[in-house]
Amino acid sequence: MSTKIAVAMAHGICVGNEFDEEESPQYTGGMAQALKLKLAELARISGSQEQKLDWANSRVVISAINWTPVLKEERKKLYEKLGIPERTSFFGLREFIFQAIADSLTYQVTDSQSDDLWGYKQIHRCFAEGLQELAQEEQAGGDAPLCIVSHSLGTVITSNYFYDLQAQKAKIEIGDTPLEKGETLTSVYTLASPIPFWSLRYPGFDRPIAVPSEKIQQHYPDLKGEWINFYNESDIMGYPLKSLNQAYFEAVKEDKIVDAGGLLDSWNPLSHCDYWTNESVINTIATGLYNILQQLNRVD
C-alpha cells in the first residue's frame, strides 16, 4: 500500500461537540476539507471538487481528536454551582475566559498522585484513541508519517503528550505501532498557543518536544518536517515560542503572525477562535504536507 500522511487535529477552546463529526460543518473547525483542496491545488490536480478531494483522501488521512466531553460535565456543574447563566456577557467573553481557565486548571498536574491525574489521563486517552484510529491499516497505517495540528490548550496537550512519549513517561497505555508511539512524528503546527505560560511553572523549560521525532530516521531516513507556530498579535491566549529560550528557538522553525478573524474579531481576544479557517494557516500547513508528499514521491 502506498504511504499516506496521518494528520491528527486537536482542538482547544472555542469548539463544540461536533469537532469530530465528519458530516458537521464544524468538523475540525472547518479546516479538513479546505486543507485537502489546497493540497490538491498545490499538486495541480484538475477536475471537480470531488475529484480533488478523492486525490487528497488517497494521500492524507485526518483524525479529529475531541477531548471536550472529558471536561464538559465538570465545567457545567461549576457553572450551575456559581449560578452563571450561559452566553450573557459581551461577545461571550466571560464564557471564553471561564472555559480557558477551567479547562487549563482541570488538565494541569500538581503532583504524581493518581487522583490528581484524572483530567490529564482522560484527555491523553482521547489523544491516544485518535492516533490509534490513524494507525489502522484501512486508514493511514501504523508506520505512516504523523503530523499534528493543534489549537490553544490543544497545543499544550500535544506538547505534553509527545514529551511523555519521547521521555518514556507515558501515564496511559500506548499502542505498539510506530505511529502510536510517536516515532513517526514528522511535523507539528501549533495555533494560538499558550505554552509560554507553562514556562512559569517549570524552571528552565528547555526540553521542547523533538520535531521530527528522533526516531523518524528508523522509518524514513531522509524525511524532513517542521514545527511552525501561528499567533495573532491581538490574541490574549496565543504567543510566539522561539523567544522562550535557545531550546525553543532551535526546535520551532517559525513563529508566524497571522491576521485571524474578520472585521469583528481580528483586533480583539475573540480572534483566538478563528485560526482553523485562516487562509494563511491553511496554505502554510498544506505546503508542509505537500513537501512531505514530494519526499515520499506521492504527488503524481
How is this structure best described in words?
- Helix 1 packs across helix 2.
- It contains 9 helices and 6 strands.
- By secondary structure, it is an alpha/beta fold.
- Helix 7 (195-198) links the parallel strand 4 and strand 5 (227-231).
- The model has no long low-confidence stretch (mean pLDDT 88).
- The chain has one domain: Rossmann fold (3-Layer(aba) Sandwich), CATH 3.40.50.
How would you briefly describe this protein structure?
The protein is of the alpha/beta class.
Which value, in Å, is the CA radius of gyration? 19 Å
CATH topology: Rossmann fold
- Low-confidence segments, ≥5 residues, pLDDT <50? none
Which outline best applies? globular
| N-to-C order of helices and strands | EHHEHHHEHEHEHEH
**Major sheet, described briefly?**
6 strands, parallel
CATH architecture call: 3-Layer(aba) Sandwich
- What's the helical proportion of residues? 25-40%
Strand content: 5-15%
CATH class, please? Alpha Beta
- When the domains are counted, the total is 1
* Distance, first to last CA: 15 Å
- Please tally the helical runs, counting DSSP H or I stretches of 4 or more residues: 9
Tell me how many strands there are: 6
Q: Report the average pLDDT across residues.
A: 88
Structural class: alpha/beta
Provide the spatial order of strands within the biggest beta sheet.
2-1-3-4-5-6
